[in-house]
Amino acid sequence: MEVSAKLKNYRVSARKARLVADTIRGRQVEEALTSLDLSPKRFARPMAKLVRSAVANAENKNDTIKAGIDVDNLYVSRVFVDEGASMWRIRPRAQGRAFWVQHRTSHVTVVLEER
Hints:
The protein has 3 helices and 5 strands; from the N terminus they run βαααββββ.
C-alpha cells in the first residue's frame, strides 16, 4: 500500500529541489529524515516536512480504514519534482531600462511504500 503527500507552488526552482529529492529516493523514512536534517540545502527543511506529512497520512490511513500499514517499514519509493508556474517581475536597471526576472516555483510529490 502506498501513501503520498504533495507540495505545490513552493518558491524554489525545480533543478535545486531535484538535488535534494535525489538524496532521499529509495531510503527508509528514518534514514531519509536524518539525511535531510543534516543537509545544508535550503529546500531540505520543506522536504523533511513533506516526508513527515506522508508518514502522518500513512498513520491516518491506517487508523481509518485498517490498512495494516507498519509505519516503521515505510521507505521513499518515489519522489518527483515538477516545474510550477513562474512569476515574472521587473527589475529596474540603469538609464531607465527594465529587465525581466523570472521567479520559479515547484510541485513536489513524495510517495511512500511499505517493504
